[in-house]
């Protein structure tokens, strides 16, 4: 019998089932919602896909809302000549351990023009096992261990991953799927359906799956970030106060809120902790908010990543302690929620089952940026875990 490593890798089409654009994404999101916020980045990429489908010839999906605001309409201009596929994996049966024979791995995957994200639905249960183990080792209660979101939890998970047959089997299934995805991306690139790059970028990978990625090849340095979320319900509760504060800032300080522009890209890149290309900077400003002085200088700003997480939040030193960071953050998050609802309203009745307490704005903060983490929590955002943005070097890099 051939060893696991010598078996041929199944093709993506054998492992993944596309989520039908014709049916829309709302019914799928309704099913995925019970796993939020654990799959929040995946959720954002589904919305990105839906927005792109709206703008693609032959796939026009128009809003049912005749009163759609000009601001919301402008946020949907995400033209993509080849819409990214969104997939739901088949239930991959675990066969590597007899005692785990009834367990199955269900994985959600989005392949966009620039990146891949995947969410194994067993993730929460496996992390809970690690947290419980961390609580025993550190003699802490489970809630404190979970809140700390430290290296300890990932280390305990990895320890269990080498001994627990169920976790071992889930990891094996994830490796098989990722191997298939990497081969599929190579096919897309070779066929001209994907830009020629030296690596494949993976968004928001939970710490627990990093060994599976490492097993496929060399990883770039990447970015490790803490995920923060805020519910639509909480954002709407604060909206009136945020609008009033923006009006006061304009009246008293002469600072006007509006979108970022092409001329702002280099300024944003120059001060950002993570280096962005000018090309990606153009994407970030598509959905953005900033305050400008009377002279037109951008003094506080925030934009959006591909997965609709908040990007590049910054306030110039001379303008701090005025509340500008909180205001651009909240106004941008509200814009994300309006866009999400606008898209969902066009894509199926099941969108109504995604409650205001489940739909969430999200943001990532580099894991050593403690001042920003404190700022996010003061603004009312909740910390939900650590994820990695990582590149996987492939053979095409040679």
Automatic annotation (TrEMBL):
InterPro entries: Acyl_CoA_acyltransferase, GNAT_dom. It comes from the Eukaryota. Residues 255-398 form the N-acetyltransferase domain. GO terms for molecular function: acyltransferase activity, transferring groups other than amino-acyl groups. Residues 57-78 are annotated as: Disordered. This is N-acetyltransferase domain-containing protein.
């Amino acid at each position: 019998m051939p060893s696991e490593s010598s078996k041929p890798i199944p093709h993506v089409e054998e492992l993944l089932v596309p989520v039908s654009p014709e049916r829309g994404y709302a019914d799928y999101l309704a099913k995925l919602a019970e796993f939020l916020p654990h799959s929040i980045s995946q959720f954002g990429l589904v919305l990105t896909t839906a927005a792109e489908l709206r703008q693609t010839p032959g796939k026009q999906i128009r809003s049912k809302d005749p009163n759609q605001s000009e601001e919301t309409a402008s946020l949907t201009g995400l033209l993509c000549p080849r819409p990214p596929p969104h997939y739901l994996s088949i239930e991959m049966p675990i066969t590597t351990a007899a005692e785990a024979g009834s367990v199955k791995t269900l994985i959600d995957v989005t392949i966009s023009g620039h990146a891949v994200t995947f969410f194994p639905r067993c993730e929460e249960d496996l992390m809970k096992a690690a947290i419980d183990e961390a609580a025993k080792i550190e003699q802490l209660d489970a809630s404190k261990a979970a809140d700390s979101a430290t290296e300890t939890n990932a280390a305990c998970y990895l320890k269990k991953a080498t001994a627990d047959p169920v976790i071992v089997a889930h990891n094996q299934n994830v490796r098989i799927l990722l191997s298939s995805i990497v081969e599929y991306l190579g096919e897309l690139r070779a066929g001209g359906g994907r830009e020629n790059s030296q690596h494949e970028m993976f968004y928001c990978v939970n710490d627990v799956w990093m060994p599976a990625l490492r097993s496929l090849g060399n990883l770039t340095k990447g970015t490790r970030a803490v995920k923060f979320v805020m519910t639509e319900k909480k954002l709407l509760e604060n909206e009136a106060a945020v609008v009033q504060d923006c009006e006061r800032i304009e009246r008293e300080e002469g600072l006007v809120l509006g979108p970022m522009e092409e001329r702002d890209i280099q300024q944003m890149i120059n001060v950002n902790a993570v280096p962005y290309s000018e090309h990606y900077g153009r994407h970030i400003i598509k959905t953005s908010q900033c305050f400008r002085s009377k002279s037109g200088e951008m003094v506080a700003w925030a934009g959006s990543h591909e997965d609709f997480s908040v990007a590049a939040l910054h306030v110039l030193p001379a303008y701090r302690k005025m509340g500008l960071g909180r205001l651009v953050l909240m106004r941008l998050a509200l814009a994300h929620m309006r866009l999400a609802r606008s898209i969902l309203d066009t894509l199926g009745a099941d969108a109504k089952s995604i409650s205001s307490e489940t739909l969430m704005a999200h943001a990532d903060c580099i894991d050593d940026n403690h001042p920003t983490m404190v700022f996010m929590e003061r603004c009312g955002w909740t910390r939900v875990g650590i994820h990695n943005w990582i590149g996987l070097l492939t053979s095409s890099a040679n």
